[in-house]
Structures are given as structure tokens and as C-alpha cells.
Amino acid sequence: MHQATRRKLLLALLPLAIAVVFTQSRIDPVVADMHRGVKTPFAGLSTEFILGPLLGMQQAVAGLLWVRADEFFHEGDYDAILPMVRMVTWLDPHNLDVYITGAWHLAYNFTDSSERSDRRYIPAAQRLLEEGDANNPTVYDIAFELGWQNTDKIKDYDRAYYWYKKCAEERKGADERGEMTKPVPMFVWHQLAHSLTRLGRIDESIDIWRKALAMSMKIVREDPKDYSKRNVRDSERHNLELMLKRKYSRYTHEIDWALDSKLPSTTDPNTGEPSARDLYVFKSAEEARQKQEQYRAVGQNPPALSVGQPRPPAVQPPWETAFDVRPTFTADRVLELKGQFNVGDGARVTIRLHDENWRPPQLKAFTFTIDQSVTLMQDQHSVRQGIWGRKIDMSKDPKMYSFTSDRYFLVFEFDPRGTSPFVQDRFGWSGEGMTDRKYLTVESQKTPPNRILRKVYRITRAQVLRRAPITEKDVFPADRYAELQRQTP
Predict the structure, then answer these.
(1) Phi-psi region of 178 (alpha: psi -120 to 50; beta: other; left: phi over 0)
(2) Residues with Cβ < 8 Å from 271, sequence gap 6 or more?
(3) What is the bridge-based pairing of β-strands 319-320 and 434-435?
(4) What is the pLDDT of residue 219?
(5) Alpha-carbon torsion 210, 249, 298, 434, what sign?
(6) Cβ neighbours for 392, distance < 8 A, ≥ 6 positions apart
């Protein structure tokens, strides 16, 4: 371009630049007034937050942003935290706390008015942790958090086992200088053993407890005065003994746990058989008669049982659970449940309501943007004296429960693998001693197979809005529902 032409263009642009400055000066006060009181992640930030990354100070700026995010946490301004989590992980992809805290925030902090989590954010929480683990492949911390979230929040014990195993066998812990040279903490091995228990892989779980105990005994020998290390060793020994005794009680001879707590006893380290022998024999004719009645209740002929004879395994005969529920919408989006369940107090039934076409999404990249039109509610109710259920009011949270679809699934489940040990003492780890005339489902694709209870209704929006009742004609085949849920979204 010729010098004369360039000069003419600059002269032509000058009045336009003056006009832009003048117009912007008139607009700015109006915009400021419109947004007065509105908080953004950048509100009050000084210029070092902009200049820092340009000067190679990304980690320092990330730290300052995370301090600001902490302020939002304490103020309860949760929406403002999400973009800051994203910015901090971009600036400093090795800040483990941001990934872990951000994922916890997504999975636990967004709730309805009854403190039920907004489970639509859980896939984003998982993907954020997976991204963090990929950026920090030598440390155990984020992988452990993935294991815990799958255990505690999602109840996906296969995924939990995958991540705990990766932690225990492939990762390291930080030494005094922050270098990844130390073995992972022993609680990683503990959770690996627990995850195998929840998968019904009992012998493998026992093997992990033995391995953990051997490691802890070596650690204690090297530092015998450390109380915390001795305490870890003792807890592992206790867990191993309980696993062996429960295996014996459930599959060989049922143990009287009340008597076991009063009598001094030892456990055979190979079979799990406790002593004294009084712990697992019939001590009265009435006790033997009650066991025979359990056989008759499920249509089996009882064997001859007498005083002094070892009891049969706890999972024999199968226990009839008489599981059922009657759901009713008593008002617009207000669900009331009346359920029955022949099981010990404290067992928990899972309730899930979601759009008919909803499937658990598998995110390829992290995003905290969710489909607000999706309705997904999950809750748990405890059994008391054979009954369960309460009111679930979804009318107060239209953003979480928009009910924009025409059809929904309403699901009631009991999974013995996730229940308390004292309930499992009746059924076994995988429901081996559990049966139900109506709603028993065998998950044969799992190894070992798992026996669960599941009742499913397919209902309409009109029923949710109480324009039509829910009846037993709305019951949907449980196997078909499980097949639909396994399909790729």
C-alpha cells in the first residue's frame, strides 16, 4: 500500500474512532446501572488476573482465583464457582484440590429444597475427575476420588473397583519433598477390598485384606511405637476376621451374632469357623422349629433339625421378602409412597423417577452445562418394622423437576450388595438367600450373579400432574427396563 493511501485511510478512520469513544462513554453508565449488584467471577479482580497468564504466572493466578472461589463457596453462590473451576484447571492442570473439590461441588452441592442432589450434574463431576486424572497420571488422589464417588454417590461398584485397583497397583503417594515415591496410603487397599466385597467377589476381597495386613505388619515391625500404624494393622485384622466369619455364617453354618459378642472366641484363619461351638448350633427346640417354618414359607420341605445340631447356612432357605409399593400423586408433582418389605430395619429402598428416554450420559469432554429439560429424581427410604415410604414433594423445585416429557419411569429397587452387613447376614452378599414371588430380578450378566428387587412403573405426565391415577396396569417389565437403560444414550 502506498504511503499516501495509508495516510488517507487513517484520516478517514479518525472520526470513526472518535464517534466510537463518544458512543461508548454514553453506553457504559447505562450498562453499569443495568448490572448493578450482579456478581461475576471477575467482579473486583485486579489487572494481575489478566496480566498474570501473559507473564507466565498461571499458577499464581490460578491460586488467587481459587481463593475467590472459596469465598463463593462460603456465600452459597454455587453457580459462580463452576466457571472458576474451569478457569483454574486450564491455568493449572496439576492443582489436584481444584479437580477434587470441583467434582464434589457438582455431585453434592446442587440440591433441591429437600436436600436431594441434582444428579444431572454427576456425569460432569465424573468427567472433570477423569480429566484431572489424565493430567496427573502418577498420583493416586484423583483416581481415589473417582472410586469413592462411584461407591458413595453412584453405586457403580464395578467402576469403583476399577479406580481403586488403579490407585493401589499403579499409583504413588507423595513423600516429604512432594515427590511421588511413597506407596499409597493403606486406606486405598482397604477401599479396594471393600469394592470387591460389594461386587460379591468375596475370596478376592479376603485375599486383599490378607495382603494389606501383611504390609501393615511389616510397617509396624519397622516402627513399633507408632500408635496410628498399629491401629491400622489391628483394624485390618478385625476386618479380615469378620469377613471370614460372615462367609462361614452365610454359606456353611449360621452364627448367632448376639452370642458371639458375649463369648470369647477365635476364628479359624482358613475356614472362618468361630469358637466356641455354641455359636452355631441350635440351642432350643423352638429355635429349630422356627428355622423349619422358614423352609415351609418358601414351599420347601424342612430337613430334620434338633437341639445341638449345627444350623444350616444363613442363606438357606431363601427368605421371602414380600416386596411391594403403591405410589400415588396426592397433588401436582407430590408423590406419596406406601411400601412393604419383609426385611430387617435399616434396609434402604432406592426410588428413581426420570424421563422415559433418559439414559446415564457418557460425556466425552467436561462441561457443566446440563439439559435443564431433563427430570431426574433419586431418593432412598429406610424400612421400619416391615414398611417404608414417605412423601416426595417435587413441586417446589421446577428447575430440577420440569416434567416436560410425556412419559416417565418410576423405579423402586433394593440391591443387597449395597446394604448393611447385618441385613446381608440374612441374604448373603449377592442376595443368594433372597427371593420374592413378584419382583425378584437376577442380574446374570454380573459375576457372580446378583439378585435384586425391582418394581417399575411407566407413567405419564398427566399422572404426575394428578389428572389420572397410577394403577398396577402401569407396571413395566423390570428386565425390559434394565435392557433399555443399558442402551447407549
Answers:
(1) left
(2) 244, 248, 252
(3) parallel
(4) 96
(5) negative
(6) 114, 334, 335, 336, 337, 351, 377, 379
Say yes or no to pLDDT of 75 above 70: no
pLDDT band at 176 (very low <50, low <70, confident <90, very high): confident
Indicate if the pLDDT at residue 58 is higher than 90. Answer: no
Label residue 116 exposed, middle or buried (CB < 10 Å: 0-12, 13-18, 19+). Answer: middle
* Strand partners of residue 139: 172
User: Among 66-80, 158-172, 307-321, which is the least confidently predicted range?
Assistant: 66-80
Residue 208: phi, psi to the nearest 5? -65, -40
Q: Which residues, in sequence order, are bridge partners of residue 348?
A: 382
Give percent of the chain above pLDDT 70. Answer: 83
Helical segments of 223-256, H only = 227-251
Instruction: Report residue 417 as a C-alpha cell.
Output: 450388595
Domain boundaries of the chain, sorted by first residue:
1-37, 253-297, 319-486
For residue 146, name the pLDDT band (cuts at 50, 70, 90). Answer: very high
Which residues in 277-312 are b (16+ Cβ under 10 Å) and which e? eebbbbeeeeebeebbebbeeeeeeeeebeeeeebb
Distance, in Å, from the CA atom of 453 to the CA atom of 434, rounded to the nearest integer, reads 9
Nearest to 414 by CA among 456, 455, 457, 453: 453
Concatenating the DSSP letter of every residue in 342-360 gives -S-TT-EEEEEEEETT---
Q: What is the pLDDT of residue 45?
A: 45
Block residue for cell numbers 434394565: 482
Question: Residue 19 is placed in which grid cell?
Answer: 464517534
Helices and strands, number each (H, E), in the chain = 16, 14
Query: pTM here?
Result: 0.85
- Name the DSSP letter for residue 300: -
- For residue 167, which of 193, 182, 188, 190 has the smallest C-alpha distance? 188
Beta strands in 282-403 (DSSP E): 319-320, 324-331, 334-340, 348-355, 376-382, 387-388, 391-393
Polymer length in residues for the chain: 489
Mean pLDDT (the chain, rounded): 88
Q: Residue 252's closest CA among 268, 264, 240, 263?
A: 268
Q: What is the pLDDT of residue 54?
A: 44
Alpha carbon distance, N-terminus to C-terminus of the chain = 57
Nearest alpha-carbon partner for 467 in 393, 411, 406, 409: 406
Cell of 99: 479437580
